[in-house]
Every structure is written in structure tokens, then in C-alpha cells.
Amino acid sequence: MKEQQKISIRFFDDREVRAVWDDNHSKWWFSVLDIVGVLNEEPDYTKTRNYWKYLKAKLKKKNSQLVSDTTQLKLTAADGKKYKTDMLDSEGIIELSKNFPNNKATKFLDWFLYSDTSIDGQSKKKAYTLFESNLINEFEVGTTKGLLQIHAYLFGGLYDFAGQIRDINISKGGYRFVYAQHLKSTLQQIDAMPQTTLEEIILKYAEMNKAHPFKEGNGRSTRVWLDIMLKKYLKKCVDWSKIKKENYMNAMIISTVDSSVLKQLLETALTIKINDREMFMKGIDYSYYYEE
């Protein structure tokens, strides 16, 4: 396989399952250790690795084809370095799950075998292609028009209101977003806000979140919108994999009255890897995970 890899992160019960796309064979390879950890509900890496060694030895004694089907690819670990790790394709993961001595595999297989043809699934595939296409560089930066362009691309053909400002009032968790009749003037005010410093960009992002201009798809669209602003004006983007879902959601709630907590959270996750394919793909994975 080429060193330039397409990485994807899936989430099962809030646990990461890393995958790498194999262009030569047109299939995904999945991290065995991630799945062993999921099936054992074991967060400790050393214990997970030791269990996989034990299970691998057991399978070898049974002359299982599973061990010989395993390949090794480099994946980025928690320390930021790349290490070779055992990987299996879809068929291998299904076989591995069947060899687990517990009933947790049933729930996992239901999730793993699910063919994601949902709106989110289709939209996520479209979001991935933003990196390969030049379209992401053609969106207006930091404007309502630019956000409409992003939303139209992500949800075009999936929602009949893709790229259109909502005409109904919406609320979430008891918080009521800007009334529909006030949206036009509110968005004009947001467009006029400066966006050259981190503080200005985060404040503008928080204000757009309060506006919530679409019926659905606000979070996924505005996170792309935010990263485009950061990329243009600060030459940075957010490494979303460093931000826990709970911390992000709490910061967004607080940002309706004070954006400083959100700024502090995002500031710790900024990276200069603005042209890194893996960084972009992980960002999309986490962005859609936040909405689950």
C-alpha cells in the first residue's frame, strides 16, 4: 500500500475503531486491537494487546486462517507516532468477532454489518470528497453565503432545504435559537463581524451557532465553515480528535453566553497541518460523531 493513506475513524459505544482504505484492493482494513478492546470493553492498551496475543496463539493452534489473513499497517497512536499494528478486512473482523467468548460480539456485528445509507452516512461521504476536490477552496470564507454553499454541498439531494435558510423556529435542549423572522438581520450582523484573530473567529462561530440558520445540519456545516476561517486567517485548523464529545458539547452550550470556554478548548487542539489528508478525514469523522 502507498504511504499516503485514507484514514477513517468509526465510533462504537463512544470507542474509536480505526480503518485504512486500500486502493489496490478497494477495501477497508480495520485495527484488530481497537476491535479487541471494544469487544472486551477494555480501555487499557497493554491488556488489550496481551489478550490479542493470547487469542492469536489459540487461533494458530486451531489452524485458523484468521491469523494468516492479518496484515500490518502503520497507524497513528495516542502519542502522535505511527506504529505497525495488526489489521483485518471486513471478512476477517466478522470472523474475529465470532471467536469471542462473550455475547458482546452480537451487538458489535449488528453495528459493523450495518450498511450506512442514512442521510448522515451519505452526507459524510460527500464531506470526505471536499479534500480531494478544489471546491472547499471556492467557498466564501466567514460569510453566510459561504456557509450556505457548504450546507448545499453536504446535504444536496438529501434534504430539500439544503443550502436554504430555515423559515421555522427551532430549539434544542430548552434553548431557542434566533427566531426565523429575525434570521436575515442576525446573519447580516454576523457577516459584518471581524474574523482575523482566534478570539474574533471563535466569537463569530459561536454567534452563528446561536443563529442556527438551517433546519438540520448546522453543526456539521459550521465546523467546516470554522476550519476554513482558521485556515485562511491563522494558517491553522482544529484537530478535532483531541476534543472529547462531552467537552465540546458543554463548551458550545456555554458559548451562548460566553465564548471564552470554547476558545480555550479549541485553542489547545489547533494544528498547522492544514493540508494533511488524515487530519481532514479525522475531522469529518469526529464532526459527524458529535451529532450522533
Beta percentage is: 5-15%
Number of discrete domains: 2
Low-confidence stretches: none
Q: First CA to last CA: what distance?
A: 32 Å
Strand order of the main beta sheet, please? 1-2-3-5-4
Kindly identify the CATH topology of the largest domain. Answer: Fic-like fold
Helix content: 40-55%
The strand count comes to 9
**Mind telling me which CATH architecture of the largest domain this is?**
Orthogonal Bundle
By CATH's scheme, which homologous superfamily of the largest domain applies?
A: Fido-like domain
Mean pLDDT: 89
Query: In CATH, what is the class of the largest domain?
Result: Mainly Alpha
Describe, in plain words, how this protein is organized in 3D.
By secondary structure, the chain is α+β, with helices and mostly antiparallel strands. It contains 13 helices and nine strands. The strands form three sheets. Strands 1-2-3-5-4 form a five-stranded antiparallel β-sheet. Helix 6 (119-132) runs antiparallel to helix 13 (277-290), helix 8 (183-191) runs antiparallel to helix 9 (198-211) and helix 10 (218-234) runs antiparallel to helix 13. The longest helix has 17 residues, at 45-61. The model has no long low-confidence stretch (mean pLDDT 89).
